[in-house]
Specification:
Blueprint: H1 9-23, H2 26-35, H3 42-53, E1 58-61, H4 68-78, E2 83-87, H5 94-98, E3 99-104, E4 109-114, E5 121-125, H6 132-144, E6 146-149, E7 152-155, E8 161-166, H7 179-182, E9 187-190, H8 196-206, H9 220-229, H10 237-251, E10 265-267, H11 271-287, H12 295-306, E11 311-312, H13 314-318, H14 323-333
Parallel strand pairs: 1-8, 1-9, 2-5, 5-8
Antiparallel strand pairs: 3-4, 6-7, 10-11
Helix pairs in contact: 3-11, 10-11, 11-12, 12-14
Length: 337
């Protein structure tokens, strides 16, 4: 006689929650180590972790001097990962990013010289300063997680996170990223000035005689394990429907009692947006050391996931309507489960 399975969905969720709580213990340790070097900027650090364990990439927009380079460099040290920085300029070539074949005269053969894309953490500084060919080479590598040099395909490092930055105050000599390419980024994070109290601490820290030493506190194995475990975070059918309704409202606002938004939106979020919203919400729940996704998690990551996936019409630009306002209206109207 077969024994019946007596576990209920509630028991399963409880087991997942306990597992996630245990597996995510390193998050607090990692955050504490990063905070030795980075003061404030909690939102940016949290989004870097979401991108890392959600296997997405982050597009960061903010004025110079807001610790963007320092943040990803500190993260790489705390995980004992390799770090590279690519300063994008108008004369950059795709080979400067992915690598090329170099002729060895002594051996009379070509050898592969790998580019800076071969690192765990890659900072693509001012990505909008490079021409389209270079942008495409980087974004293709991000998507495929491999590059082809000569006849050979090379896998990129794992874990792998690209943080690309854009400077919003200078547009001269820049090449705007096309919408289809911006869509490759899981998150677009707007970074603002630190609080004045935090800035006082930043000044004091920079005037110290002994620089802050960041120690590796998390292994690659922990991160790779987290990438697998985050997929187990429980997401209810109602949460899936909530995501679909939010994405649907950006495409067909008139169907969600948002007819006033229709003339303001030229195109809504792509299917990649709905996938990334679900993935980012799971990663956010993991960072918060929880094994299930709440509607609040969707709302917490929604602006960062969707702000680069909604196209504004000429009418919206003429009336100075911002994407943030559209996302806010969608979240206010779409029914929360």
């Amino acid at each position: 006689m077969e024994t019946q399975n007596t576990t209920t969905p509630t028991d399963d969720i409880k087991a997942i929650n306990e597992k996630i709580h245990k597996e995510s213990a390193f998050v607090d340790l990692l955050t504490m180590e990063i905070n030795k070097q980075i003061i404030g900027q909690k939102h940016m650090i949290e989004r870097l972790l979401i991108g890392l364990i959600g296997q997405g990439h982050v597009l960061l927009e903010g004025v110079p001097g807001l610790a963007k380079t320092l943040a990803i460099n500190t993260l790489s040290k705390a995980i004992d990962g390799s770090f590279s920085r690519i300063q994008f300029t108008p004369d950059l070539l795709p080979a400067d990013v992915i690598g090329t074949m170099i002729y060895n005269m002594q051996k009379n053969e070509f050898a592969v010289k790998k580019g800076p894309i071969f690192a765990n953490f890659v900072l693509a500084d001012e990505i909008n300063r490079a021409p389209a060919k270079v942008q495409s080479a980087l974004l293709e590598a991000m998507q495929e997680r491999q590059v082809t040099i000569g006849d050979t395909t090379h896998k990129l490092h794992n874990p792998f996170l690209v943080l690309a930055t854009q400077n919003p105050i200078e547009q001269e000599g820049t090449y705007t990223l096309p919408e289809a390419q911006v869509d490759r980024f899981m998150l677009k994070v707007i970074i603002d000035y630190p609080e004045l109290d935090d800035e006082k601490l930043i000044i004091k820290q920079n005037l110290q005689k002994v620089p802050t030493d960041i120690q590796p506190v998390v292994s690659h194995k922990d991160i790779l394990n987290a990438i697998d475990v985050v997929k187990e975070v429980y997401m209810d059918e109602k949460i899936f429907q909530y995501i679909i309704d939010i994405i649907g409202a950006t495409r067909y606002p008139e169907k969600y009692k948002l007819a006033e938004l229709k003339p303001l939106i030229s195109f809504g979020s792509s299917p990649r947006g709905s996938i990334n919203l679900a993935t980012a919400a799971k990663a956010y729940a993991f960072v918060k050391r929880r094994g299930y996704v709440l509607p609040e998690d969707i709302r917490a990551v929604c602006h960062d996931v969707l702000r680069h996936r909604i196209g504004l019409s000429y009418e919206a630009e003429a009336t100075n309507v911002k994407v943030e306002e559209i996302i806010k209206q969608v979240l206010n109207v779409v029914e929360v489960p």
